[in-house]
Write a structure and sequence with these properties.
The protein is an alpha/beta fold. The protein has two domains: about 100-400, Glycerol-3-phosphate (1)-acyltransferase (3-Layer(aba) Sandwich), CATH 3.40.1130; about 405-530, no CATH class. The protein has helices at about 5-20, 30-50, 55-70, 75-95, 100-120, 120-130, 145-155, 170-180, 195-205, 215-230, 255-260, 260-275, 295-305, 320-335, 385-405, 410-425, 430-435, 445-465, 480-490, 510-515, 525-530, and strands at about 140-145, 155-160, 185-190, 205-210, 235-240, 280-290, 340, 375, 380, 405, 445, 470, 500, 505. The strands form four sheets. A seven-stranded mixed beta sheet has the order 1-7-6-2-5-3-4, sandwiched between helices. A three-stranded antiparallel beta sheet has the order 11-14-13. It has a two-stranded antiparallel sheet with strand order 8-9. Helix 1 runs antiparallel to helix 4 (about 75-95), helix 16 packs across helix 18 (about 445-465) and helix 16 packs across helix 20 (about 510-515). The two termini are about 50 Å apart.
Length: about 550
Amino acid sequence: MRKDDQFRILTEVESRVADRKTVPDDVSGTHIREALEDSLYHERRRIRGEPLGKRRMEDAAFWANIERQLRGSPDKTQKNLLRAVIRRYGQEIAGNFDERVYNLATRAIPPALGLLLNAVSPRRLVERFPHFPKIDDAVIIQGETEHLHRLHDVGTVILTPTHVSNLDSIVIGYSLFRLGLPPFVYGAGLNLFSNPLIGFFMHNLGAYTVDRRKNDALYKEVLKEYATLTLEHGYDNLFFPGGTRSRSGAIERRLKLGLLGTGLAAYINNRARGALRDRVFIVPATLSCQLALEAETLIDDFLKEVGKSRYIIDDDEFAMPKRIFDFFVQLMNLDSKIHVTISRGLDPFGNPVDDEGQSMDPCGRTIDITRYITKDGVPTAVEDRDAEYTKELGLRIGDAFLRDNVLQSTHITARAIFGLMRRQNRDHTILRLIRTGGMYDDFEMGAVYREADRVLSALHKLEGRGGVRLGPSLRQPTEDVINDGLAHFAIYHTRPAAFRRGNRLVPKDRNLLFYYQNRIEGLGIEADLELPPALSPDHRGLANAA
């Protein structure tokens, strides 16, 4: 982001949020005082849980000063304090973009990642000399890529990917570069900036910080306004609408609508001021991979109080450089691919759009969406109405995630094994089954193949209706699919999810089996498999969590 734009955006954020908090008929200034006291309460609680260090000391000093000045202060002082808090939040959030860093990164990172992704052994590098491997060998970008280009040309784009790993932002950023698109502005969790090297690149490649530990409503309002204004200034954005990585391994179904609603807010504001490029488009993208870097930590977190034991994980596999290296090396050992699938675009109301950015009804006819937002002939934000529009948009994004989900051999293998466990232990709840393993310690391979056949048959029918995508690893005989899945399970995780012993298959890590089988949850094939869902409809809990 250009420096002058960033200054204007932060100034406008402060002005808009402060004006909304200053109620004209509130002569006593009570509304402002309540907002500040609420901020003080939440920030004091957050600071008490922060580790000792410079950041905590600075935060504590700032809020102690706010509290001291707020006591018995006149209205003017309260307004100034409110602006000071908004300004501080804005400066914490604000991203930066340095074209020199971007040019360096786009030259250096692809070959470096290419070597990392492919260099499983010196012998392999020698065999490929002088044609050294590239990251292109590992990342497959597919789907509506030309459509994405067209929408970028006629408006501002919000790309909304699924979220599996902290590596996702790197993969998506590289994919945009490969597609010839400019860098997108995106929000990243504050914990990702703790690594000095990664933090430097993220700060200078367009990322702004999202501190999920902050529960203050004022902070969230500043964050939302900042994102809205970047869109109004024509900066394409990247949001992970799941909010955080999928703990269960399933496709996200309950999306965070706060930031997602900034597309509609920006469109209304653009129309109100007569902007020449007023359209905002939302483009879902689905990331799919055979293995997940942080699978062990994420599923463990999900199963502890069904994902409620902690919300921010800062000590997972992403924090361990060796685990990242091992993950990529082992992933490429079997020529696995990371699929990035771009879906068709949507308008801020959830309607599909054509290549020219025109909104379409279910019959494919062009519709005028300006009538959705006019009140007395003027484009106007209406909170309840706009919330319903954004809710509908979230449903359409979730549908796209499922349709463009690329399933792989690890998902089929895990589903077949877990399906057998459920069939033979129908009196067990999901949680009990994961914890105890049920009546049998292993399964005959023929039974595993038959269960996998049942899963694949249902998925092939679904693929024929456009309901899912099957990866290349599934275009082979069932026995080979299972063997490929077991090979992947054997190469990266601390212990394999399952392994073969003679003509028997042994479930080893039931948490991981559950994690990988969950990628098939929500596709609506339960009737074909004669098994009920394992997860709740929103994929945030268990279907039978007793």
